[in-house]
Design goal:
Elements (H helix, E strand, L loop, with lengths): L1 H28 L16 E5 L4 H10 L9 E5 L1 H8 L10 E6 L6 E5 L10 H11 L4 E6 L9 H10 L8 H17 L7 H18 L4 H14 L6 H16 L8 H43 L1
Parallel strand pairs: 1-2, 4-5
Antiparallel strand pairs: 1-3, 3-5
Helix pairs in contact: 1-10, 3-5, 4-6, 6-9, 7-8, 7-10, 8-9
Length: about 300
């Protein structure tokens, strides 16, 4: 009788633990997409769908983006022509990733919410934010989603098209192209041995911050900044990748992109990335502790039956 009671206690404890974890996850996820009123200054949020989505996938994406009433958003589709126009991309590309863009007042900054991070396989929030600042988008809340697994690159094109819908907000095509090249280089570098997404984002952000401080006048100045940041962050690139990085920021310099205008956002972005890196290191100990807990729990339950 006593043994049976102990078994039931252990079972109830395990069930309670599962429900408490589930409740914590649900509470942490929150609802980032609640749109109950119209912004009379900037108009309706714009939802951009990838052209390759089926009708069913579009409806699924609406739900993910929190679109409860289609009259409360403006819906457009990003096409093969758009990918050619904005980033000189391949017109045969299949575009699935979608976005909801809500313009905000100055001082809000760029806020990225990946609502399906499991389906955006290569691009992080910070990578999107970095590229958008390069493109000239400085104030917006952007929700990104895809019902299927995609790299996430094509979402940029949809964001550019949505932003161009507003009065007086037309983007510079040269800047959108270099921003797309930045995102492509970032994701490619993140696949290299010894690098990851957060370290690559940290490198790009720190270079931009230094450019804002120094206002480099020559390509040699750009090279010096990049070499200093690689040394400071203890990162090693091949000669080929280092040159690609130099070429990218030299193009930004030639376009006279003024990162001083978004320096505060770059500082915030740098802090976010550094926190993620610190948390990732700390998570190793946390995950081991969780693993040990469940191992001990299972051993205890086994002991009850033995």
């Amino acid at each position: 009788m006593k043994k049976t009671f102990r078994i039931w206690c252990a079972a109830f404890a395990a069930i309670a633990l599962v429900f408490s974890i589930q409740t914590f996850v649900q509470a942490s996820s929150g609802d980032k997409n609640n749109e109950d009123s119209i912004d009379e200054k900037y108009g309706l949020p714009i939802v951009v769908f990838g052209e390759a989505l089926t009708s069913a996938q579009k409806e699924e994406t609406r739900k993910i983006l929190g679109v409860k009433d289609t009259k409360m958003v403006e819906e457009i589709t990003v096409t093969a022509d758009d990918i050619v126009y904005y980033i000189k991309g391949d017109p045969r590309s299949n575009m699935y990733s979608s976005a909801k863009i809500t313009r905000k007042d100055t001082g809000q900054g760029v806020i990225i919410n990946q609502l399906t991070p499991e389906n955006i396989t290569e691009v992080t929030d910070e990578m999107y934010a970095n590229a958008l600042l390069t493109a000239g988008i400085e104030e917006a809340v952007i929700d990104i989603a895809s019902p299927v697994k995609v790299s996430g690159h094509s979402a940029l094109v949809g964001i550019y098209k949505a932003y161009d819908q507003g009065e007086g907000t037309e983007l510079d095509k040269d800047r959108t192209e270099v921003a797309n090249d930045e995102l492509s280089l970032a994701t490619n570098l993140a696949k290299k041995e010894g690098l990851d997404q957060d370290k690559v984002t940290e490198l790009l952000t720190e270079i931009k911050k230094e450019i804002a401080d120094q206002n480099p006048a020559t390509k040699e100045d750009i090279e010096q900044i990049i070499d200093e940041k690689l040394k400071t962050l203890e990162l090693k690139l091949s000669d080929e990748d280092r040159q690609l990085l130099i070429n990218l920021f030299e193009r930004m310099r030639e376009l006279n992109i003024n990162f001083d205008n978004v320096k505060s956002q770059l500082n915030d972005l740098a802090k976010d990335v550094q926190n993620k890196i610190s948390e990732a290191v700390g998570d190793e100990g946390f995950l081991q502790a969780v693993s040990n807990f469940f191992k001990n729990l299972i051993d205890s339950i086994k002991g009850i039956f033995s």
